[in-house]
Specification:
single chain, alpha/beta, Rossmann fold, 7-stranded parallel β-sheet, about 15% strand, binds NADP nicotinamide-adenine-dinucleotide phosphate, SDR family NAD(P)-dependent oxidoreductase, NAD(P)-bd_dom_sf, Sc_DH/Rdtase_CS, SDR_fam, oxidoreductase activity, acting on CH-OH group of donors
């Protein structure tokens, strides 16, 4: 039997939270990884070192996913150092200002839309260009349950951005299916990470979650890994909600 090539996956926002858990899970499931981070080089290097301990290859690249040149550099380094990219996890996200929309500043709203929407589009565009040449692949967009809940009083602009992520997932999946590229999303509910401006937010919301607790990053990582895997070969355009019933 011929040996399957090792998948090479780009994970944005891999330095902490959900992205770091995705890196750990993908390494365990046999991927080489190029992880992108924005500011915390030490955290990114620590994740990369733990991936390498599993025997997989990993590079940490500083890249602002909202910046076209940074995105191109990220994918170029991934392909040059790890081999043709077969997977993308669009995960780097920020909430922007917290509170009612009436109080939100325009620069903060723009930044949230830039990272969560333009950044996802730029990374997906580059992945599609590369995967079309190299024989296909899979993209997983980390969306949010906020896309359907709307996040009133917290960050309506962020929820709207994640609504756009769901829409791009559906549209792009149809656009590139015949190129051998699958595009899906995972929509997490409230997950314990440093994403929350108020660290107590996950516990404060626990009562309103049918399963009675916030989720853990590892509980999202398994869903991401499945969507990238051959087990999900007939899944495309899917938005998999992993939100404790919320
Ligand atoms: P997190 O703990 O705040 O981590 C965010 C990650 O994104 C960090 O690695 C950060 O890098 C990176 N990042 C931020 N802006 C970036 C940029 N412009 N370019 C590249 N990297 C950037 O967040 P998280 O909770 O893991 O969230 C991950 C994803 O899940 C996001 O898309 C978020 O919207 C989504 N989500 C989270 C929750 C939740 O409850 N936590 C729920 C639903 C959806 P540095 O540390 O280097 O800055």
């Amino acid at each position: 039997m011929s040996e399957q090539p090792v998948p090479v996956t780009v994970v944005t926002g891999g330095s902490r939270g959900i992205g770091a858990a995705v890196c750990a899970r993908l390494a365990a499931d046999g991927h080489h990884i190029a992880l992108a981070y924005h500011s915390d080089a030490a955290a990114a290097e620590a994740v990369a070192a733990s991936v390498r301990e599993t025997g997989r290859r990993c590079l940490a690249v500083r890249a602002d996913t909202a910046d076209e040149a940074d995105v191109d550099r990220l994918f170029e380094r991934a392909a040059a150092e790890l081999g043709p990219v077969t997977g993308l996890v669009n995960n780097a996200g920020v909430s922007g200002p917290v509170g009612p929309l009436a109080d939100a500043d325009a620069a903060g709203i723009r930044r949230a839309l830039d990272v969560n929407v333009v950044g996802y589009l730029l990374c997906a565009r580059r992945a599609v260009r590369d995967m079309t040449r190299t024989g296909g692949g899979a993209i997983v967009n980390v969306s949010s349950a906020a896309a359907t809940l709307g996040s009133p009083g917290e960050y309506v602009h962020y929820a709207a951005a994640k609504g756009a992520v769901d829409t791009m997932t559906v549209g792009l999946s149809k656009e590139v299916a015949r190129q051998g590229i699958r595009v899906n999303a995972v929509a997490p509910g409230v997950i314990r990470t440093e994403f929350h401006a108020d660290p107590a937010r996950p516990d404060k919301l626990a009562d309103g979650i049918p399963l009675g607790r916030p989720g853990l990053p590892e509980e999202i990582a398994g869903a991401v890994s499945w969507l990238l895997s051959p087990d999900a070969s007939y899944a495309t355009g899917t938005i998999l909600r992993v939100a404790g019933g919320r």
